[in-house]
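Hi F.,

I've been meaning to write this up properly since the lab meeting, where we talked about keeping a consistent format for the predictions we share between groups. The idea is simple: the sequence comes first, exactly as it goes in, then the structure tokens exactly as they come out, then a line or two of notes. No screenshots and no reformatting. I'm using this chain as the first example so we have something concrete to point to.
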Amino acid sequence: MPSGWNLEASLRSRSRHVSDDTEHTFFVAQALLAHPNDPVAFQRCLAWKLRFWLLGVPAGIGLATLRAILKLWLGFRPTRGGVFSAGNGPAMRSGIIGAYFFDDPIRRKEFVSAATRLTHTDPKAEVAALAVAESAASVLGQEPLKELAPKLSGLGGGEEWSVICRRLEQGLAEGRSVFAFADAVGFGMASPVMHITPSPSRCMPVCDLPTFPRGPDISAELR
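Output, unedited:
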């Protein structure tokens, strides 16, 4: 483990407030550690965490996520609770899956799919979630930057996604800033999820993480 990095210290905050992105990342990490080899059991575990999370009346919860969790409380199985929406909920919680399975693309896809379909069933939501997971895996696997955009383009998503990935490839090649790239793809909090996702994907490869744990060290730190 590289020296100078501590998960607990990194997550501390004076205000002790965290975003829903952080909360969902914790839920996914806990479900992964409980069921690292079974995406079905992982999905059931994550479903219960989301059920109890809703009881805390979280601020800013997305409508699709709210509807899906209410369906879970009404007795729908995790495999049947998702609603047809391309919201960004799955994308905001999939990065940790990419990090955990950075060297296992098959499991990475299985677990992202399980985490996505729990709340969102629109294929666009799954493509976006996979893009975030693949970007995280690429960073931890120290893959060449030029391979990222073609990899993301291969996830599907139709012509709209292909155009966005070509813009990502061009932005990386030109060394555009994250803000300039976000403007180019039309990023905004109300933007469709496939327009939002490439911006964090653009951030990840250029983050300065000299002491951040790589690969298997992620699992060790989580434990």
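Notes:
Residues 102 and 137 are 4 Å apart (CA to CA).
The chain has one domain: 19-206.

If this format works for you, I'll send the rest the same way.

G.
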